Amino acid sequence: MFRAKEFGQEIYFRTDRAMIKDNRYSFELPLNWSTQYKRDPVIGISEIYYTQCIRDIRYQFKLELINQTLGMVEAIPEYTVTINGIYYMSRNIKFREFVNGFVSEWLGAMNTKNTELAAYKVGETARPLTPYKGYDVFLDFNYEDRNGERVTVLKFNNMEDSTRWDSIIDPSTGGTINVIPKMTFKLLNDDCKEVLNGSKRQKEYDILDGVEVSGADDIVSEVVRERVLRLYPAWDRNMTYVTSSISSMTDGGFLGYSRSEPLHRLKYYRLDNNTQKFWIELYSARDDKVKTILPKDGKDYLAIEGVIYFDASTALK
After folding, report:
1. Are residues 60 and 179 in the same domain?
2. pTM of the predicted protein model
């Protein structure tokens, strides 16, 4: 008996509508799919892509020098450097571009502050205050893997000169004092918290002799040592390496990469007719051992499009 070739049923899955556990997203298959022919079906994947949200990231970064002379713990206003940053992360903007913008703003604020310090007058004497050096605050930017999560690392260095914070000129008297730098990174709106918090819902300020953890909105360090600000971007907006239970027969369960254009042809995967669910896991395309954690608000999501053929014996002929 002649049997016509089967036409596939279109499917569309997106991570914001899935059951979520860490970087694993679980999906229900169509309710009617196991009753069609009682034969093993196949799924054809045509696209794996991100729908990116435009985000408005607002933050504050501040450096203060704390006067330690005679037990004083007050910040010295003349030395305070602050940036109130606003960054619009439009579609296809990567997290690194935000960090580059942060660094550029900070260096500009430092140059402006040094101009002010150079023109300062102590009493009746036109005596400049102690300028900031180029690497007093920012040293390096990189990535690292912490507990299976990709982390953006900003290193702040105060160790280059062991006496750096000794003999700072006092704006009030013109004498010298010893100070301790205090840095605060504050998250000012929900988009900033979603993008930077990742799965941690907190920030870390690592210092050489310990880890100082603050609440969800502020990060503060007051120790004159090298320190590392580790930001947990929910997603750095780079390409993602996707594994799945439906591609379990491939090397490492590899399903594909997130792409900006459709695949040239469908990739087919045969399934067991009794299967009612499948899952995908997201990893960094730079390192497939590092998890990709999407923002919890669901505004940025990964979508999978394709077709299901309920009878593999005819669908692939």
Report:
1. yes
2. 0.75
